[in-house]
Known about the structure:
It is a single chain. By secondary structure, this protein is α/β, with parallel strands linked by helices. It has one domain: Transcription Regulator spoIIAA. It is built from seven helices and four strands, in the order H-E-H-H-E-H-E-H-E-H-H. The chain has helices at about 5-15, 30-35, 45-55, 75-90, 115-125, 135-150, 155-165, and strands spanning about 20-25, 60-65, 90-95, 130. A four-stranded parallel beta sheet has the order 1-2-3-4. Strand 2 (about 60-65), helix 4 and strand 3 form a beta-alpha-beta unit. The longest helix has 16 residues, at about 75-90. The protein is globular, with a radius of gyration of 18 Å.
Amino acid sequence: RPDFVTEDxxxxxxxxxxxxxxxxxxxxxxxxxxxxxxxxxxxxxxxRAVKLCRKYGFIPHVDFIxxxxxEDREDLMDSLRLAKxxxxxxxxxxxxxxxxxxxxxxxxxxxxxxxxxxxxxxSRMTGRGKLYGNWVKQEKIAWMIHNYIKRGIILGxxxxxxxxxx
Length: 166
C-alpha cells in the first residue's frame, strides 16, 4: 500500500534486504475510482511512495487494475497518465485486468474489459520494457469466473451463506 511507504520503513529495509524491488498497489490513477473502490489513498500518496522508494535505492513496481467497476474513458486516461509519470520517475508498471473474485465486495461487479485503444498503449509500454503483467489472460479469466458464478459452478458470498444455512 502506498500509504505505508515511509522514510523510516525504507531506511530499515535498505540495509536488511537483498531484493531491491518493492510492489506498490496504486490500482488506479483516477481519484474518483480510488474513492469508489475505497482504497484509502490518493494519487499523491502513490507519487510520494515512488519518490521515496527511488530515494532509498528501491525499484518500485506499481500495480494498476484496468476495467474496474465505475471506470470510464477519462478514468482510464488518468491511470495511463499516472503510469507514464511513474515510469519517468523510475518505476515499472504491473498491469492487471479487474476480476470479480468470489468472496470479495466486488464479486457481483461485471468483469473488467480493456478497450482496444488502451490495449494498444499497454502493449507498446510492454514492448519498451516499462510494463508487464497478465492483463490479457486476466480479461479472459474474469469472464470465465463471471460465467461460472452465473451458472452456479462457483459460489459467491450469497451462495456460501445459503449452503451453510441449508
